[in-house]
C-alpha cells in the first residue's frame, strides 16, 4: 500500500469546516470534535475512519442541542445537515 493511501485527513481542516457549517467558534468546535474522536479511539483497532464517525457524532450532538434550544423542534438549518 502506498503512503498516499495511509495519509490521515487534516483534522484542522475538518474542524474549521464544521465550525463554519455550524456557525461556532473554531476553538469550541475543536474541543467538541477532539472529545468525540478520543472517545471513539478508546479500544479502536482501526483508526483510519475515526474522523468520519467523530464528525457524524459532533453533528448529531449539535442537532440535539439545536432541538433543545428550539422547543418547537425547528433547529438551525446547518445543524440538520447531518
Q: Mean of residue pLDDT? A: 81
Which class of secondary structure composition applies to the elements? mainly alpha
Distance N to C terminus: 32 Å
- Relative strand content: under 5%
Number of strands: 0
Overall domain count: 1
Tally of helical segments: 4
Sheet of most strands: none
**What is the radius of gyration?**
14 Å
What string gives the helices and strands in order? HHHH
Describe what this molecule looks like in 3D:
With 82 residues, the chain is mainly α. It has one domain. Helix content is 63%, strand content 0%. It contains four helices and no strands. It has helices at 3-6, 11-22, 26-41, 50-69. α2 packs across α3 (26-41) and α2 runs parallel beside α4 (50-69). The longest helix is centred in the last third of the chain and has 20 residues, at 50-69. It is globular and about 35 Å long. The chain starts with a helix and ends in a 13-residue tail after the last helix.
Q: What are the key terms here?
A:
single chain; 82 residues; mainly alpha; 4 helices; 63% helix; 0% strand; globular; disordered C terminus
Q: What is the element layout, followed by pairings?
A:
Layout: H1 3-6, H2 11-22, H3 26-41, H4 50-69
Helix pairs in contact: 2-3, 2-4, 3-4
Brief summary:
The chain is an all-alpha fold and 82 residues long.
